Amino acid sequence: MSKAPEPTPAGYILIVDDHPTNVALLSTILAADGYPIRTASSGLGALRLALAAPPDLLLLDVNMPDLNGYDVCRELRASEETRDIPIIFISALDAIGDKVLAFEAGGADYITKPFQVPEVRARVATQLSLLRHRREMRRLEQELTERHRQIESLKLALRDRPPVSSRRSPAPAPPPSGEAISRQVVTVLSTELHAFNRLSEEVPPARLLADLDYHLALVTSTLEGHDAEIERFRADGVTAFFRSPAVAVRAARSIQRRAARQNLARPDDSPPLLLRIGLSTGPVLLARRGDAMRDITLIGETVSLAARLHTEARPGGILMDDATFAAAGHPDDTRRLIMRVRGHAGQLQAHELVPAAAPSSR
């Protein structure tokens, strides 16, 4: 037994023929495949039904007493609500000229009577599949347009925000070499998108790039709002550092809350963008380069540990080392863990903080 085609994208199939036998046969064939069916016995009746409640597909006879199929097709193509409905002509007229007239009127396909059941089913399934793809493309275009609008809005907000350096004490003049190196104790924050390789394979490229642009803009704006300095951008994450461990923890919470809200606004068929965040506090070798000392390099075990912690964090979660937990004043809603971390000798005491708003994997 052949597999029944997928149901219509939404709505119903409209069958139009002035011969009750043809209508009954086509209705039986397609209803057995699970398609909702409506029928009309005249061209005018078909127009009234289609304009009142547009179907997903029309099976349309040519010769009818009041209004022929060509005229019905032209009328539907002239209306914005019905112009995209696929129309399959089913007619005893088999001359080339008749078929040309059907396609010129806006028909999508043509079946000659007497028809074969497998042919009707196959052509109906093909047109509905094409309709599904067209609707999905329109949805993606609308989604990308909205994402672009959100990105531009976020860029404007970032542009209007004074630079981080302007909200602090003036930096000392750089040495003549154009490079400044110092040892400092900072809190390093490292982020990573969960299952990024799988996302890059499953999500269409254009939508993935829009997602990443908006996602990185969201993380960056949150970090800047907490006076962080960003050391490195990656395709799937960011590395930044803070002078205050408590501020670093607040920034991590804020990033996860905003990421959770972003995921709630995503379409149901889009995989969520789930962040892992690692926090580590300790000494680093900090190098600043360039005329404005804006190029930053962090070196040290603190940086490596933050990256290892984000790898071990659950999707949507935050892991911090014991030094960050203590220096940040023992934040609430944490769970003490004893764990082994890749690249770290022995067992490590860490603290897990999972924001309540963080979504789970779908």
Characterization of the model:
The chain is α/β, with parallel strands linked by helices and 362 residues long. 42% of the residues lie in helices and 23% in strands. It is built from ten helices and 13 strands. The chain has helices at residues 20-32, 43-52, 69-78, 96-105, 117-160, 196-202, 205-225, 245-264, 301-312, 322-327; strands at 13-16, 37-40, 57-60, 87-91, 109-112, 179-193, 229-234, 237-242, 275-289, 295-299, 318-321, 335-340, 347-353. Strands 6, 7, 8, 9, 10, 11, 12 and 13 form an eight-stranded mixed β-sheet that branches. A five-stranded parallel β-sheet has the order 2-1-3-4-5, sandwiched between helices. Strand 4 (87-91), helix 4 (96-105) and strand 5 (109-112) form a beta-alpha-beta unit. The longest helix has 44 residues, at 117-160. Mean pLDDT is 81; it is low at 1-7, 164-176 and 356-362.
